[in-house]
Amino acid sequence: MRFAETGYNLEVNLSSGNIEKVETDPELTRLHLGGLGTNAKILWDRVSPEADPLSPENLLIFGTGVLCGTPAVSANRTIVTTYSPQTLLMQYSMMGGFWAPELKHAGYDKVIVSGKSDGLVYLWINNDKIEIRDASHLQGKGSLEASELIRQELGEPNAQVLSIGLAGENKVYYASIEHGRSSASRGGVGAVMGSKGLKAIAVRGTKDINIARPAEFMELINEVLEYIQWRADNPIKHVPPILAGLGSPQEMAIHDEQWHTTAFSWGNARYRRKDFWTEEVEEEWTKIQEGAVQRLISCYNCPMKCGAIISYPSLELSKYMMKCYSKLTYVMGAMVDNLDFGFRIAGLAQGYGVDAYTAPQVMAFAIELYENGILTDKDLPDFPTDKEGRFFYLLEKIVRREGIGDALAKGVYWAAREIGKGAEEYDSNTIKRHEQIPIKLGMLNPIFFLMLSTGEKINITQIEGQLPQAPFPEKEDREEFVKDWIQAPSDNIKDFFVKWELRGDNAFPFFPDFQTACELVEWQETMHYIDDSTGICAGLSSFPIKPPYHINNLPTIISAATGFDIDKDELWNKITRRNRTLIRAINVRKGLRRKDDKPPQDHWKKRFPEHEAKLLDEYYKFKGWNDQGIPTKEHLEELGLGYVGEDLEKRGIYNSEQSKKES
Ligand code: SF4
Fold first, then answer.
1. Which domains does the chain carry?
2. In 3D, which of 545, 563, 434 has the Cα closest to residue 485?
3. pTM over 0.90
4. 249 lines ligand 1 (CB under 6 A)
5. Which ligand 1 atom sits closest to the C-alpha of 77?
6. Ligand 1: does its nearest atom lie under 6 Å from the Cβ of 322?
7. Rounded distance between C-alpha atoms, residue 286 and residue 267, angstroms
8. pLDDT (tens digit, 9 = 90+) per residue, 29-81?
């Protein structure tokens, strides 16, 4: 009997129409857990690095975490893994909601989609009955509308559906896969789905999932629930309200726009507007948000209610769901001082299915090019003069790939190179060809430097967490903070926190020491990698400060569910390191090298090139990578990934002359 996982994947080839239920090897679960770990292994084994991400050879893997569908609170993540058309690297984009638990209850751990169908289709998974169905009548439909129509035509209101919109059908490089309550948005996973001619996947499942030691497991999960309740009554002190609680940042419940609008940058990631926030703005925006939010909602088996149903009668379906920062990304990108605009355009964009972080930045980039004479009225005929109108205009051009929208549909990096005429100079906020959250800060921070430079998620919010973003000014407060810090992995991290104080300009970038900086980054990244394999939401684990799931209780929870005896060392130093290193190797095989490990060019005003180079050297050594950021053969061998080292060697990737030339 298999525990926590179902032991089966669903293989769907859209070229041949072949559908197969395939039993999986339990040893792979022991080595990689589920979700991201086993997704990565499949991608390494089965997709050639030479394959075009938008070709039938690329795989689109919908993986559930190993704990999804069990009573583990918030274990509901779907991890969508593929090669990205935008970064040309491995992409793994996560979504919450209800889809992954439903798939587990239907009897599958993953859906692995290959090939390309002749016309637009959708997949209907109803326990053991699987069908590829015609979706030509859904062509051009918005993502949420398509999901609703599918539920109606199946006569199955409880089916969980994920779908692409027009952007995915037209292979926009930052097209998302939408699930209503949540979405997999980053890196163009929706474009890959569109390239396969797959409009949607609907699932209904009614089977049970086995737990190895149910009584022990339930006791542990009840402790998690009790802690969540305790934290609701005891928020973290000395941090902004948005970081004081649990869950995804509670942007739908808390009116805290001041923090984002004054701490993040506006336009094409260039300006901070500290003076923007006034009492009048706060009053007006509170009114707008309270008018827009119909009610707060949660994902499967979670009490946190991080999302909301937004009601806007002017939109396609009049209602949509939102969480977090996307109400502001368009407002700030367009430099519009009106939250109402944010709700209206975000709803429209969700129907089209575009990433709410990347799309506004691409549009702001286009406007900056226009204002600087690089794009002209010839490129943007009938371009509105008002800021809101310009954003709506650009959104339509991009999702239809009309005129200049065709280049802009590839994201800032590729569009800049296609447009030329100096447009590259305006590519100010990408890493590895991918747009970042727009932040402009003064002084280099070694921990954030390493996370931004080396993170394979290419997205800082999915690497950071657990540590307050700035030191507490008073030593007594820092000492109090560490007293009940049961989540900290070591005393060294607690010592660091107590000594972490506001420092002058010259001292700060050299604190903490290299070893501690490496430990801090690895700890935070490790937590995200564990979540991505268990399917637990980062909002209750890797992302907030002092979360209910942490490195000191997760090994017991995973062991009780799966029946594997996994301790902290095994979970961190073997399984997670194995997954992290395998993903690095996958990207190295795709050409990733040290030259790519850098933050956006003007992210910090003050930079320290020598210090940064040394930090990278130390971090690479700490990770078991060589000076080009390539996992060493010896380290791969230690992790049971000897076959990966052999492949890299066969391809000449360890040849230092070649590596140097490429760097
Ligand atoms: Fe969903 Fe929030 Fe719960 Fe995470 S913490 S599962 S985002 S409701």
1. 8-204 (3.60.9.10), 245-357 (1.10.569.10), 367-436 (1.10.569.10), 441-662 (1.10.599.10)
2. 545
3. yes
4. no
5. 6
6. no
7. 23
8. 999 999 999 999 999 999 999 999 999 999 999 999 999 999 999 999 999 99
